[in-house]
Amino acid sequence: MVVSAARAAALAAISCIAIGVAAPGWADAPASTADQSRLLKVILKHPGNYDATFAYVRASEKLGDYEAAIGALERLLFYNAKLTRVKYELGTLYYRVGSFQMAATYFRQALASPDLDAETRARIETYLPGTEKQLSPLRSWLFVQTGVRYQSNASFTPFSDTIEVGGSPNPIDLSGPHGADWNAFALAQFANDADFGDQGSSTLETRLTGYATDQFRLESLNVGYIAGSVGPRFALAPSEWPGLTVKPYVTGSAAWVGGAPYDATGGGGVSLSAPFGKALTVSPFVEWQKATYPNADPTATLGTADWLTTGASAGLRLSDTVSLNVAFSYRRSDGVNAWQSNDQFSEEFDMPIRLDPPLASIGQKWTVTPFAVLTQTAFDAPNAAIDPATTRDDSKWQLGVALDAPLTTHLGLAAAVSYERSNSNIANYSYDNWSVVIGPTARF
Amino acid sequence: MPWEKRSRLLTTLVTALLSTTAPLTRALADSVGSVSAVNPSANGILPGGSARMLSLGQDVLFKETIRTTGEGSAQLAFLDRSTLNVGRNSSLVIDEFVYNPAAGTGSMGLTLSKGVLRFVGGQISHTAGVTINTAVAVVGLRGGSATVGIGGEKGGGCEGTIFINHIGALTLKNKVDQIAITKPGYGVCVTDPDKPFPAPFLVPDALLQGYLGNSGSHGDQHGGAADLPSDQMTARAGFDFPRLDPPGSPPGSNPFDIVTIINSGDSNAAGSAQSQQGYGD
Predict the structure, then answer these.
(1) What's the predicted TM-score (pTM) here?
(2) Which of A120, A442, B146, B225 has the highest CB neighbour count under 10 A?
(3) B120, B251, B274 ranked by CB distance to A143: nearest
(4) CATH class for domain B33-236?
(5) Where in chain A are the domains?
(6) B contact residues 44-63, partner A, Cβ 8 Å cutoff
């Protein structure tokens, strides 16, 4: 019941934000449809009517009819081939339709103009490297963040004064370090796409993630984590259904806690990505992994097991600035020990909102992402070391908001605030935790 | 009056009436767009064979042939919002243009016999598609923009006919082969209609610049405009001056991804902490 209420609240909150934020984007578009047709008639009769041409470009852009805007702006270059601002605008339009070579060509032409203003030059210098990267058959990206993190309950200490041990309540031992703590952390994400050179846009995708923390007090909970995946992505119907792709992959990870190995996983899966129009992409997947836990402590929540996970994510573009991502997954964990085997359902909702930064000199948008994460885990059998009469059943939810604020082409700031609450039918596993993360970022 | 005489008179009258009204009716009914830019000299050859100098705002007619000289170029704007730039030393015919504005559907066909064209799509190319005929291949264009050039261009290396996909997808067919170009910026150079198509390649920037220049204005040319647009006008035009999102979803583009990584670490720390607290020791 708690989970249902939390899920309903999260959905309601996300929906309200989505409607509130996306509404202005929707409100602009319908008004332009009739305008565009009316303006086209004017332009056809009087091509030199620049007011009508600019209005037509604006209306077409609002409708997402970027090609109509391109045709009209390229006409202006017929009249005056030195229109630097028009070349910049054409670069942005070709960029938005994914024609990066034409975008780069117009950006370079604008950069070469002696009368280019400083603000437009800064914008082009921000976008041109990423535009040119799209033309390379081998593309790499690196994102790094360091910073500090505060947790109100870094030890995940339960609410209760007593915990279950062997089926009996015992006073919790709070003599050691516990509770709130700070840490310094670093994380990195690396991605590489290597084109196979065919017209189906097939690529070999490599993804790597690393994460490490250094707790200020609770050093036994320092975490290290690396994960990666590699696999080819094939277009299934490049002409008939552009963007429809399938990706088989292998994946693996290893984690350390307190300097000791915690777990290692390895396996593979296959995912499908299916766009429906320009606004919606659905990606189902299925994955198998072998998870190995060297710690045979009978009280450990998880042990060596086979994980079979299936699910789907969907990305819905609500407007030019707002998207809604939803992901559902189910994992069956068949452990060596029945009390560590479980069924887990997870739901994630996040809504990136792209905002213009406060300074005109910043060329990239900032992103604010409210999110909600819900997880329900039902174990197969009671753990005699904890409570032989109760089969553990957990539900956990997390609400928060994250910010990515690029300040230059490569440097920026990122932050996140979240609240997590875990409810379990065994007191040992019910806790809450506030988290605040902030630190500089770098991306290449 | 005998029936045969009456019939001949009626036929003569109807023929005379049709001969005076038909050209007007056809000119109005068969207009497919207008000349939106023109650098001399560019001519139109009407379906009846008469030639005319193209001028700004003039109707473009169904089955009209557009010809440009070594200094001439033009842009045609069509009723379905598509545009066609005709480069220097070019000759093309508008073979087909059927458009239903209410439904936003139709069909369009062009034949390029020499020179360069750059097509930016409208409603028709997003539905049934546009067909471009050349001597070496027939091109189907869906949903986008393309350049076709015959006879090479400075900075090129293609001495045949080049087909470049800018937006959407091109399907090329000749007598023995068919190929799809779905990647923007890629093109194929075709020299022989009886041989399989070569592999598409990423068109070099210099070649692209060449075709852009060919199908636009040179030096003092102004596309027929009397008053020229300026950057000041553009600045006042109220464009959004948008910031662009990074292409695709590179790492770090959604800060929730960072939360997901931190959550993975927390999951391990929580599992370890709950054991360390000695519940079973």
Answers:
(1) 0.79
(2) B146
(3) B251
(4) mainly beta
(5) 30-63+65-133, 137-443
(6) 56-57
